[in-house]
Design brief:
alpha+beta, 60s Ribosomal Protein L30, Chain: A, 14% strand, globular, OmpA-like_sf, ZorB-like_t2, OmpA-like domain-containing protein, OmpA-like, membrane
Length: 210
Amino acid sequence: MAGLMMVFMFISIAYMHYVRIEKEKIKEVAVAYENAQLQLYNALDIEFAKDLQDWDAEIDKQTLEVRFKSPDVLFGLGSTELKPKFKLILDDFFPRYLKVLDNYQEHITEVRIEGHTSTDWTGTTNPDIAYFNNMALSQGRTRAVLQYVYDIKNIATHQQWVKSKFAAVGYSSAHPILDKTGKEDPNRSRRVTFKVVTNAELQIRKIIQE
């Protein structure tokens, strides 16, 4: 009986040691993710700090989103056609954006070009019709943005990477921007963002599955 108890004790000790090692591995991945995210944010901030005000854009430190906020600059009402000023902004922004991301490719799973709308839709008060019309609109806009930046001449050497990592995602009005009173801000809700998705979650999953 004493021998059996010793066996169980050794098994318990071995298991606790294994759990501790796995926790340490996950912690290392989390720390590496935080460091990489901070470094990438700092690199983006250094690269674009002087341009953000002119572009009416901002960089979110937590989500690594570069957010273009001025609907009057981006597209016409109900249109998927990029306005000339937005094209000029993208001509300047996108090659420099890729240059920054070059240094962090090992940490990047995906880059999403995300389109967001307000809940409004001209000609209807039905929220379901508005939602699905805005879904088609936001999807069309992000595809138009992706196609435009893909065809920029001086990013030709990055086109294969863009095809493998970039996605165009339209969210309709699912993620509105709210004002201080908690109500939707329609103008700020209409936006286009470039969002980096890191591979930290994937790395943690691999550790758990091993």
